[in-house]
Predict the structure.
Amino acid sequence: MGLAYGLLGLSALALLWAALVVAHGLVQALRGRWLDARRRSTTQPRPWRVVARADHGPFFQLWLHACSGRWRWWPGGARAGQYLTLHLAQPQGMQSRRYSLAALPRWRWSHLAWVYELAIKREPLGRVSSCLHEQAHAGTVLWALPPAGHFTWPAQLQGEQVLVAGGIGITPMRALTQDWLRRGGPVPLTLIWSVRDMREWMDYRAQFEAWAAHHERLRFVPLFTGRHEEWRGERGRLTGARLLAWSQSGRPRAVWMCASAPMMDSLRTQLLDAGLPEADIHVEAFAAPTNPDRASYTMHWVGHSQALHFSGQPSLLAALLEQGVALDHDCRNGSCARCVVRVLEGAVRQVLAPEVALPEGCVLSCCVVPSGPLRLAGIAPGPLGRKFGAE
């Protein structure tokens, strides 16, 4: 009898163990499906519908909402300072461009959806902006990735924040200012907006002036660099000295910039010379890096049977993609942190400053070019891969 009970107990334990193994397998399978769905939701464009449009010469505003999914019903953590990546089919192939959210998402009962605002400048030679200018009207369906980007406020603001916008670079600053207002204006905020065309003001300047008139901690400095006899405000080029003089404290805690690369590079250098820590200077740059060095180097990718070649492409990422390396990527300028690779041998040269801290031996391939032969490897799935969006 005792032996029978013993065998029965062993059988029960064996069945329990088998059930646990099966349950573990199911959990892993479900987790894999969930991760795949999550990856697709952030890496595959979805349809968004334009619900309204306003024109200001070469500048135009679009209001749009996701046609389905959580971005229609719930903003999903979309933060001030983030952007939408629009994808448009062109004769030259699929083209994508990032446009900052010009405001916090707003719920519209008329559309039963969260509506997102973009402000876009039509560039004469810009394929995507010209196409949008001609074809994006109320009812048009565009394809876009969900909001992304790291040009966002920290959880807790400390000390004076200075925002610097050049022209259409005002878009993320407007959303950041709205978020600052939503938080109750916890710290002093100074916004400097430099334009050279009166049409760039759109209807935003009047809004900023009204906000500044009602919030003593908000200082708005419109700066005009063009020619207009009726303008009575500040004129001339923005310098680091003028920025510090216009700040409310004379020593801002952080400076946030979205403008042309020459303007931001100049201001960055001057602010560093004035003693502002580099970690306190944040930039949002939408232009892809340029590489004047036309030297050629051999590259070896672990797992790739043939040698690769770098021959003057704007970035390491561009060279890898051209030669068939399937490397996850999105922004191409150091924001999304998806194109991280490990440099096993050789050295690289930085052409853009990444917006994230990377482990030793790892680089964002969109931010560097080789300075000699390289041996490279991707980041395997795991804690490091998850950290950089490669789940």
Notes: Residues 56 and 202 are 6 Å apart (CA to CA). The longest strand covers residues 46-56. The two ends are 54 Å apart (CA to CA). Residues 34-41, 381-391 have pLDDT under 50 and may be disordered.
